[in-house]
Structure formats: structure tokens, C-alpha cells
Design brief:
This protein is of the alpha/beta class. It contains 4 helices and 12 strands.
Length: about 180
């Protein structure tokens, strides 16, 4: 996809995501800064911040766990390991995510059951385990391109289903399976 295609898809994703009631009522959203060809998060993050929503962004730690910082806008992002962009402000700790109403998860694909295929680093698996251990129950949402909603993706015992996937053409809700 060209940079223009990614930006256009990102704008469509933001519009679709903002249709989810979970975003409408959110005071805090844990998001991430998309890089490369990932579905764009910029437009959604900007729209949320314009609404007064506190947006948290991940900070990749040496052990691949995630600390969090507040999104203060594109001018307050710094280059980090693995080509990522991270917030420049103070670190809020790994537990900060447990206060989020919505957690936006990166993913390569999601299947019709809501199972997410990540990049394999395990950072967000740790986030999901941390949320469960804290008894936190935020909405789990993934932004995808239309072709990334699949019939089935591989899963492991520790994987958890997401509640919704947003594509440029629509919203897709899932009923998490009992485990």
C-alpha cells in the first residue's frame, strides 16, 4: 500500500472505530503508534484526544514488556527500538494499562472467533495477562485492513479473543468463547 492508501485507510478506520459505543464512553484508551504498513492509528488517536480522552501509548522495555506514557501528540513522540515511536513524557508503569476503558491491540489478522494473530513478541500477551490478573475488563479492539479478517488464525493456550475488529469497511464484533 502507498502512504496515501495507508492514510486514507487510517481515516476510515478512525471513523468506524468511533462508531463503537466503547470509544464513545471511554475516559482512557490504551493505543499504539502505527508504523510502516500497519493500519494507521494517528487519526483515531487525534480524534480521541480532541474529545478529551486520555490516550496511553506503549513504551517497549528491554524484556519486551510494555510500560506506558501519555499521548501528547505527534510532536511529542521519539524514535525507539525496533523502529517504534514512543511518548516522550513520564513513564506511568506497566500497570497503567489496567485503568483503560479500551485497549487497542496491534494485529496481523483476526479470525471470525475473535482470535488475534500478533507479531510474536509476546508484549501484548503480557498486557492481556496483566489485565486479567488485575480483574480489569476493557474492550479489546484491533484495527485491520479488510483482507486481514480471516476464517481462522493459529492460537496458543494463552491467547485471548478480542471483542471487536475494525476494518475500513465495517465493524466486526465477537463473542469471547468460554475458556
Amino acid at each position: 500500500m502507498t502512504a496515501d492508501d495507508i492514510e486514507t485507510a487510517g481515516a476510515a478506520l478512525a471513523c468506524r472505530a468511533l462508531e463503537l459505543p466503547e470509544f464513545a464512553g471511554a475516559a482512557t484508551v490504551a493505543a499504539y503508534v502505527s508504523v510502516g504498513g500497519e493500519p494507521g492509528t494517528h487519526a483515531l488517536r487525534e480524534a480521541l484526544r480532541a474529545r478529551g480522552v486520555r490516550v496511553l501509548l506503549p513504551v517497549l522495555l528491554e524484556d519486551d514488556d510494555l510500560d506506558w506514557g501519555e499521548d501528547e501528540g505527534p510532536g511529542r513522540l521519539a524514535p525507539a527500538r525496533r523502529g517504534l515511536l514512543e511518548p516522550e513524557g513520564p513513564r506511568l508503569g506497566t500497570e497503567a494499562v489496567t485503568g483503560a476503558d479500551v485497549v487497542l491491540l496491534p494485529g496481523l489478522a483476526v479470525d471470525r472467533r475473535g482470535m488475534r494473530l500478533g507479531r510474536g513478541g509476546g508484549s501484548y500477551d503480557r498486557v492481556l495477562a496483566r489485565l486479567a490478573a488485575a480483574g480489569a475488563d476493557p474492550a479489546l479492539v484491533v484495527l485491520l485492513y479488510d483482507g486481514e479478517l480471516l476464517d481462522e488464525v493459529p492460537e496458543e493456550a494463552h491467547d485471548r479473543p478480542v471483542h471487536a475488529a475494525v476494518t475500513p469497511s465495517g465493524l466486526h464484533r465477537f463473542t469471547p468463547r468460554p475458556r
